């Protein structure tokens, strides 16, 4: 049996070590290389579980929240809230873009809010598609919000604003109820720090501030 010359053995060992080193470098590059799927997940975050059961949402029978594909402007830009109907995230400014809107800030424990919400539903039915009427529950207890709306028999689209982000964005005081009148371009026409006393009060206020006649 013949033996391999020492020079050839040294060359073979060096080649194998170089190949092993190249494999390690490639593996590290693959591990740290940014992935397209990760960027997609950052742009479209999954809804955060709130602990509210599907049965409770279904019992409230709330309509879907508005949605929009065009980025919105104004002080509400960048605010994403959970829809009370299904828990999905809502880009608030995008959802309201292109149409005047009335955002009603309320909470399940607020007595004036409970008196006002049925008026808002009647106004929304009266105004039709001329304006978006959206309730904004300004308290983290989503389950009580849904139960309250069910008890009042109010079925308006609504979002959960646990940290009062909308109130902070429009510079409103820490009281409830508050109604924010938003123009179609996303700018705020007025902030009503009071409870409406009827459907005509809402209609007259909206007509004067936003030009929507209903």
Give an overview in words.
The structure is a single chain. This protein is globular. The chain has a seven-stranded mixed β-sheet with strand order 2-1-5-4-3-6-7. The protein is an alpha/beta fold. Strand 3, helix 5 (111-127) and strand 4 (132-137) form a beta-alpha-beta unit. Helices cover 43% and strands 15% of the residues.
Please provide a brief summary of the model.
This protein is an alpha/beta fold and about 210 residues long. It has helices at about 5-30, 35-45, 55-60, 90-95, 110-125, 140-150, 165-170, 200-210, and strands at about 80-85, 90, 100-105, 130-135, 160, 180, 190.
Note the main attributes of this structure.
single chain, 214 residues, alpha/beta, seven-stranded mixed β-sheet, 7 strands, disordered N terminus
SSE layout:
Layout: H1 6-32, H2 36-43, H3 54-60, E1 80-83, E2 89-91, H4 92-96, E3 101-106, H5 111-127, E4 132-137, H6 142-152, E5 158-160, H7 165-170, E6 178-182, E7 188-192, H8 199-210
Parallel strand pairs: 3-4, 4-5
Antiparallel strand pairs: 1-2, 1-5, 3-6, 6-7
Helix pairs in contact: 3-6, 5-8
Using the alpha-carbon principal axes, give the shape: globular
Integer average pLDDT: 84
Q: What is the distance, rounded to the nearest whole angstrom, between the alpha carbons of the first and last residues?
A: 104 Å
> Total strand count, please?
7
Instruction: Give the radius of gyration.
Output: 28 Å
Q: What is the H/E order?
A: HHHEEHEHEHEHEEH
Q: What are the segments in which pLDDT stays under 50 over at least 5 consecutive residues?
A: 1-11, 24-49
Report the helical percentage: 40-55%
Query: Largest beta sheet, briefly?
Result: 7 strands, mixed
Structural class by sheet pairing and helices: alpha/beta
What is the number of helices? 8
Strand order of the largest sheet: 2-1-5-4-3-6-7
Beta strand %: 5-15%
